[in-house]
Design brief:
- This protein is of the alpha+beta class.
- It has a single domain, classed as Alpha-Beta Complex (Nucleoside Triphosphate Pyrophosphohydrolase).
- Helix content is 27%, strand content 20%.
- It is built from three helices and five strands.
- A hairpin with a 4-residue loop joins strand 1 and strand 2.
- The longest helix has 13 residues.
Length: 126
């Protein structure tokens, strides 16, 4: 997602994400659909938990791999823009400092360390 973040006064690139409850899996699907307009296909897979900043925040972030079938979408009314990147383009954006969100970088590291490959039609939600 490309969106403006007021706190850092900058446009960022981030995986879809948001607040969750104990229903983490359902929340991940809901957040992805709200932010991208895309519906999931199949059951999301948990990639575990990360802590964004252990020196400042006690919150845990659940990371989910959400499969999708149809990549056609309608921009949600959140002010964010959906951006599609290949695996190589994703790496380039990280290398060049275009992706700086700690949660997104942590989610990407969890994905890369897992047994799952980034396949076409797969979205990561944090």
């Amino acid at each position: 997602m490309r969106q403006y973040r007021y706190v850092i006064d900058r446009i960022t690139l981030e995986f879809p994400g948001g607040f969750t409850t104990e229903a983490g899996c359902a929340d991940a699907v809901r957040e992805m659909t709200e932010e991208t307009g895309i519906n999931s296909h199949g059951r999301p897979t948990s990639l575990g938990v990360l802590h964004a900043d252990t020196g400042l925040l006690a919150s845990e972030n659940d990371i989910w791999l959400v499969p999708v079938l149809d990549l056609k979408h309608v921009e949600a009314g959140t002010g964010a823009e959906t951006v599609w990147l290949t695996d190589g383009e994703l790496d380039e954006r990280v290398i060049h400092g275009e992706i700086t969100s700690g949660i997104t970088l942590g989610a990407l590291a969890k994905l890369r360390a897992s047994s799952f490959a980034i396949a076409p039609g797969t979205m990561l939600s944090s």
